[in-house]
Amino acid sequence: MKDVISIKDVTYRYIQDEEENTALNEVSLNIKEGEFLAIIGHNGSGKSTLSKLMNGILMPTSGDIKIFDLNTKDPENIWKIRQSAGMVFQNPDNQLVATIVEEDVAFGPENLGVSPKEIRQRVDWALDIVGMLDYKKQKPHQLSGGQKQRIAIAGILAMKPRCIILDEPTAMLDPSGRREVINTIKHLNKDEKMTIVHITHYMDEIVDADRVIVMEKGKIAMEGKPREIFSQVEKLTSLRLDVPQITELAFELSKEGIDIDSNILTVDEMVNQLWQSN
Ligand SMILES: Nc1ncnc2c1ncn2[C@@H]1O[C@H](COP(=O)(O)OP(=O)(O)O)[C@@H](O)[C@H]1O
Ligand SMILES: [Mg+2]
User: Fold this and answer.
1) Does ligand 1 come within 6 angstroms of the Cβ of 43?
2) Helix 116-129 to helix 175-190 angle, to the nearest 10 degrees?
3) Angle at CA of residue 237, ends 233 and 239, nearest 5°
4) Is any atom of ligand 1 closer than 6 Å to the C-beta of 167?
5) Which of 13, 25, 40, 125 has the highest local Cβ count within 10 Å?
6) Which compartments does it reside in (predicted)?
7) Regarding beta strands 36-41 and 219-224, do their DSSP bridges make them parallel or antiparallel, or are they unpaired?
C-alpha cells in the first residue's frame, strides 16, 4: 500500500534564548494508507513536535517529510498538505471558531473555496459520521467536551483529508467524552478507511491500533503491534509508561507462578485464560 506520510532522517531543534533544544533526533517513519498508528511516549519525548512536522506547521531542521510525495519544505505545497493531513488538538475550545455548529464545520471547506452546495453536503456528511447531525443548529459552547471534540473532528473531515493526526484529543475529556472520541476515531479508520495518527498517553486507547510507536528523548524507542509493545512491561516501565491495567494484572499473576500469558489486552482474554488454567 502507498505511504501517506514519509518521514526520513528528520531532526528538529527549537531555538529559544540562543539555546538549542533537539526535540527530534534523526527520526524515520512511514505511515501507510488506511493505517491506524498510535504514538505514545512520556512528556517531552517529541510527540507533538512530530505531529506538527507532519502537516507543515513546523519545518524539519534537517531531513524530509512528504505527504503523498509533496515535500513540506516546498512553500507551494503547504495548503495542499494542510488539507491532506488534518490536525485535531487537545483543547476543543481552541479549535471551534463559529457560534453555530454547522458554521464551524463549514469553515474549513469555505476557506478551500468549495462551492456552497457542496459545503452543505459535506457538513451533513461529516456531522453524521461523528454522530452529531442532530446538533447542527446548536451553539458549540453548550456542548460537552466530547461533543465539541467530535465537532472539531467533523470540521477536519469536511475538508476531505487523506489522513487525520490527533494530538492527545482526549486529554481534557471525562471518561464518557473520551469514549465518544475514541469510538469516532475507530469508526473513521474501520468504516471510512481514513488513515489515523493518534497520539495519546492513555494505554487503553491504543489496544486497537495497527501499530504503536513509543517515543523517548526525540527518538523512536519501540515499534510494533500493541500486543508486542505491551508484552514488554519492564521496558515500558523504564520508559516511564504503563501498560493497560488488565495487562499489568496478567503480568503480576504470571510472576506469582499462575499459568497465564502476560500479553493479555482485554478482560475477555483474561477470563478465557483463567478458565483454561483451571
Ligand atoms: N516551543 C518550544 N520551544 C522550545 N522548546 C520546545 C517547544 N516546544 C517543545 N519544546 C521542547 O521539545 C521537546 C519535545 O516536546 P514535545 O514535542 O512537545 O513533546 P511531547 O508532545 O511528547 O510532550 C521537549 O524537550 C520540549 O521542552
Ligand atoms: Mg505533546
Assistant:
1) yes
2) 120
3) 120
4) no
5) 40
6) Cell membrane
7) unpaired
Cell 526535540 belongs to residue? 23
Average pLDDT in the 194-207 region? Answer: 92
Instruction: Return the percent helix, strand and coil in the chain, to nearest 5.
Output: 40, 25, 35
Task: Look up cell 478482560; give the residue.
Answer: 267
Instruction: Tell me how far apart the alpha carbons of residues 264 and 268 are, in angstroms, rounded to a whole number.
Output: 9
Q: Give the distance (Å) from ligand 2 centre to CA of residue 268.
A: 32
Amino acid at 80: K
**200 close to ligand 1 (CB < 6 Angstrom):** no
What tens digit of pLDDT does each residue of 2-35 get? 899 999 999 999 998 889 999 999 999 999 999 9
Atom nearest to 42 CA in ligand 1: 22
How would residue 278 be classed by pLDDT, with cut points 50, 70 and 90? low
Contact in structure between 13 and 21 (CB atoms under 8 Å) = yes
